[in-house]
TrEMBL record:
<protein>
    <submittedName>
        <fullName>Family with sequence similarity 240 member A</fullName>
    </submittedName>
</protein>
<dbReference type="InterPro" id="IPR040261">
    <property type="entry name" value="FAM240"/>
</dbReference>
Amino acid sequence: GMNNQYVRREVFCGNTCHELKRFWEREIGKQTYYRQSEEYRLGKSALKKLREGWRQRLEAKLRLQNGPDETKKRANAGR
């Protein structure tokens, strides 16, 4: 009788420990995922600001250069 009881307890503990481990791996995974996606979002908005700044600077430069041959220059740049 004693042996069976012991084996059953081992199996139960094994399953519970496994479930707990899986639960915590999921929780930690979620937290990591949220943190990474937040960092990604912040990084993306910073990049957007940077790009916006570059775009404005480029447009200002183009406006300064804006002469009659502007369209020709643009076509050449596309090549």
